Records
---
Amino acid sequence: MIAAILSLVFLTYGVYDHYRMFASEYRSSTWQEPLLLMYSPAVMITVLILYVLYGMSALFTKGQVPVPAMPEIPTMQNALNNVTESLSNAANSVANAANDMMNNVMNNGNGTNSNRRNNNKNASNMSRSFVESV
């Protein structure tokens, strides 16, 4: 409790001493405040008048805002058809890749892997596929 009271006393003294030491800086840094009090209503009234004039000119010149057409909302059946088609395309791609891989392994495999590995000096026998070289 004593520490809290002492901290408040020292804080109060520090603020008083700081203000006493830098009083001239505080006076010179706040010279804009009277300007704000004098001119801010004039600025707001000017902005309000300009806004009203702009609104009136837009009203009398028949200013129209272009409104884009609403996009067509797909039906549930179209959405399901698109999803089904995408899934079947993906499944077909996976199946085709698996079939191609198995065909390459079966056609090129047949126990000749060791011969093919040793015969890599010929560029026509080179394969870039990892699966074919296994």
Note: DSSP finds six helices and no strands in the chain.
---
Amino acid sequence: MPEDSTGVAHSSLPGSALRQTCFVDMPFGKKVDPKTGVTVDFDQVFHQGIRPAVEAAGLQCIRGDQEETGGLIHTAMFARLLLAEFVVADMTTANPNVFYELGVRHAARPYTTIPIFATIGAPPFDVNGVRAIPYELAEGKLTPEAAASLVESIKNRIQAALARTRVAVLLVSPDFLASDFIHEKELGPLLAAAEAGGVRILWVPLRPSAYEETSLKDLQAVSPPDKPLAQMSKADRDAAWVLVCKEIKGASQSHPR
């Protein structure tokens, strides 16, 4: 699980796939770089360089044009920017929308933000200090070698962030417990890390579940398991979230990176 700026990791929220998400912020289709005149095939970069890396790291990969939620596009996009466990942002062509959105994300969750750029031109001066991943293009596309290098670089950056997790927050529901992905890719490694003393697990009962039939029964929940948040009044639920925040703060301070 990825950490935020406090070193705290968050589980996936209940959803269709119950997988951690990487949101990709980049131009779509083919775009001309205004400085060099090179036409960049961003769809090819996404499909051959970015998505394979994200999926190899075990995350769900979503690009802005693949957003399926209804309502305002900007609302869904900003929700993804702030809530996705990881964001990959392509700074090639210095697209102003990408730079604005990168700034929003980097201010909120810098440690799981991965900027990338094509070496057809250097990034603007004010982002030169950002730890970005460069990639090479030939006639506006990734060569097989460049694609393999970009996949490896992005995957390694994601895995490094996952390895730095010191506190994990599990939002437990029947969907969570029924997910094979959660058990195989998240819960098992986290429990092993907790047993070794490297990670503290905080779990929050969202809805009634058979948690007592799992390894969670041996871990203390942040709020009473027999009274999950879904069964609380709004006032009690708000108070429970305040307690969760305090527990996260205390745990992150006692488990420095």
Note: The domain at 19-162 is CATH 3.40.50.450 (Rossmann fold).
---
Amino acid sequence: MLYKLDVDANFLKWMAIRMRSLLLPFLLLISLSGDLIAEESPDKYALLVAVSDYDHPDFGDLGFPEIDAAAIGKLLKASGYEVELLMGSRASQKAIRTALAKFSERGNNKGVVFVGIFGHGIEYSGSKRSFYCPYDARIQQITDAKGQKLFNDDKTPKVEPSAGSLVAIDEFLVALRESAAANRVLIADCCRDDPNRPRGRSFGSALEINQLPTNAAVFFACSENQKAYEHAEWGHGAFTKCFLEQLESGKSLMGSMAEEVAPAVETLVDAKRRPGDAKQTPRLLVTGARIDLQLNAVNLKAPGMKPSPAPESEFNNGIGMTMVLIPGNREGLDYDYYLGKFEVTQREYQSLTGINPSYFHSDKPESERADYPVEQVSWEEASNFCKMLNEVRTSARRHDLSPAMEKGMGGGEQKPSEDAE
């Protein structure tokens, strides 16, 4: 038996209009860089691991590891790197090992794989093995060769990080070796206030060049029996501050960077350290004649220039539209961009184009209909609107439209939502 389905013509017309009205909002992605999304996976990848505040109270909290990692990540990202940040509680032993296990898929024979670790590190004098202390690292009491537990002069237990809860430097080196990248780099600013300092060596001091993969550079913040310093006046660890300055200057070869970083760190630390404090001399190991970070100098801050101002988290573009900053590394985008907070209104569309094509406006006073979402707009008309919008200047700078506009697809009512951010 067949039935005749009667559909109200007005309903069909409303549905068609509604679908067309959804085209415009997702065009309003305004990119900070204006770069096209690469079709291929990036051949420059950075894994940055940092912990400032540890889960276990016996690990002294640090001031700047996470700030250091974020600053380096920002510069590498500006130079085309895919940057993965594991910071704070996200830098657990499991999370770090999970990231390292994917290194066989990272990089290509023309690219770069870069690893930076920031926080506490330890080298056990008996085994000469170095370990990075992740967020969830644990403490154990030190024993002597006979297994007897040791105590300090004040009868408190002598403790050290438990090796089973740490990540060995060997694991980072194996991951670098598994990568197909032509340039493999590890920097380690993680000898800060060594939890087991009286036992001797600093992080990585026993590592020898024959343990490195080919075409690799490993740059430690300090040398044997030293520690890595940080200071509020610097806003960073000494090593990272000087390394950042070289990145900002556009230097790209690890060898030439190390020649500048090492004396700069010594000078910086000598001006602050007290009599009797250990020195800090960075140490570089290299197994390639030319380890190149492949920095894109045009995107980096040149020497003597003031840093670019941080982008606003939210701004008004001059015709009443509120734009919200969406951080990169979300939805597959590798750069920050702006998204219209609400649907484009009839008032906003008409203010630029001079026309209002909307169907749902004639039966309401202008004061009410002006804030209705605009509709009856074709793809081409929406694109032209975006081109006109691109000429609107706010906050004394221009925000260029992103070709990645499909990432903003979606509708919404013309009012703030609880999760609008």
Note: The first strand starts at residue 29 and ends at 31.
